[in-house]
Amino acid sequence: MSTPKDYDVIIIGAGAAGLMCAATAAYRSRRVLLLDHAKRAGRKILISGGGRCNFTNQQVAPQNFVCSNPHFVKSALARYPSQNFIELVERHGIEYHEREHGQLFCNDSAKEIVEMLLTECEWAGVQVRLREEIQSVRQIDEQGFELNLVSGKLSCDSLVIATGGLSMPKLGATPFGYKLAEQFGLKVLDTCAGLVPFTWHADQKQRFEELSGIAVDANVKAQHGPAFKEALLFTHRGLSGPAALQASSYWTPGETIEIDLLPDSDVAQLLINAREASPKQSLKRALSQLLPKRLVEALFDEQLSSKSLNQLEHAELDAIEAQLKHWQLLLNGTEGYRTAEVTMGGVDTDELSSKTMESKKAPGLYFVGEVMDVSGWLGGFNFQWAWASGVACGLDC
Ligand code: FDA
């Protein structure tokens, strides 16, 4: 016989997944308490998408997520597709627009998404308590937990961990969820920063730093990931822009990334055509019609780039093509959690039910959102995972 508890459900973390889960559970008439140590709910939502929150994507598929078990995300995403969240946004009268690759953003402000979620929590009867420090958690019977807060003790039947990942520590990210998972014997996979800019080695910095501010459309590919054709941005520190951020989620230190700087062009053919049209034209001049001049100068030494097209040997043409279409770069690292949008790794999904997000080892203990080993691509997929996993759990906890 379990003893009566203060709440049916306590959720730790009032971010995207926690808010969604709380409203869903409370609409089932569960007595729900949502706790957070921050002074505001949904802080990452507020700064997301440049303040306009890329809240979901029109085309969400399991392959848009990185997870050790690629099948894990299927059930929750199928039960709560992006259309359901779009309908919620529309019911609240929030205006939005679509950008490239199916990304949906608020017209006005990300604040509207946080207000919408807090309104849903209020309508459903969720109690929200902010600035709460949780000191410890213990199991008190076969399905029940006691939380030791600075402000006192609280008990619940179901405990949901929605404390997110480690990115942006300034916004209140903590390893709380990982530590709690380990306390209950769950495996936590190594974490690292994802959707994060790359940094140059010292010699690369010397060579490419002056390209800072240049953006080109490129294909960027880490060795074990798909190629992403999006904008690539050169910065003082390294490479950023959507194409680099996406590739970073598949990159491990010591591996090269491959860049195709002219993804829509057959470079060899272009150079042959240019040579036929004006044989005396220099390589630099010919390539500067395809790419920013400063980039061409940084990629090819003066001796080669000042050669006229009709002087180029076959081997040189092959090397030029390889440089432009298959540029192999061994980068120093990434900017880390300080600027990362997500955390790769986390609570091993093999430990959780893909239908409910409940721990298989500790009944009544659930994990939702980014704290688990699920990371989405750039483009609204991370929020879609937060909504979908939050709902899957909220319907069960
Ligand atoms: P989230 O991080 O949102 O929430 C965790 C909550 O737990 C926080 O409120 C935190 O205060 C709380 N918490 C942590 N430790 C605690 C503790 N010890 N005690 C109590 N509370 C604790 N995604 C996307 O789809 N579209 C986008 O436009 C963007 N843009 C974007 C921009 C930037 C700058 C970042 C950093 C990230 C994004 N993302 C994004 C990613 C997205 O923000 C992220 O994946 C989700 O917010 C994850 O939701 P969660 O609820 O899991 O964690």
Description of the molecule:
Residues 8-394 form the RsdA/BaiN/AoA(So)-like Rossmann fold-like domain. The chain crosses the membrane at residues 7-27. Its cofactor is FAD. Keywords: FAD, Flavoprotein, Membrane, Transmembrane, Transmembrane helix. This is NAD(P)/FAD-dependent oxidoreductase. The protein is α+β, with helices and mostly antiparallel strands. It folds into 2 domains: 7-192 and 344-394, FAD/NAD(P)-binding domain, CATH 3.50.50; 197-334, Translation factors (Elongation Factor Tu (Ef-tu), domain 3, Beta Barrel), CATH 2.40.30. Helix content is 31%, strand content 25%. The protein contains 14 helices and 21 strands. It has helices at residues 16-27, 43-47, 74-79, 82-91, 111-124, 176-183, 202-208, 241-248, 267-277, 283-287, 293-299, 302-305, 314-325, 381-394, and strands spanning 7-12, 32-35, 54-57, 65-66, 96-98, 103-106, 127-129, 134-141, 144-149, 152-161, 188-194, 198-199, 215-222, 227-234, 238-240, 256-260, 327-330, 333-334, 342-347, 365-367, 375-376. The strands form 5 sheets. Strands 1, 2, 7, 8, 9, 10 and 20 form a 7-stranded mixed sheet that branches. The longest helix has 14 residues, at 111-124. The mean pLDDT is 96. It binds dihydroflavine-adenine dinucleotide (FDA). Dihydroflavine-adenine dinucleotide binds next to helix 1, helix 2 and helix 14.
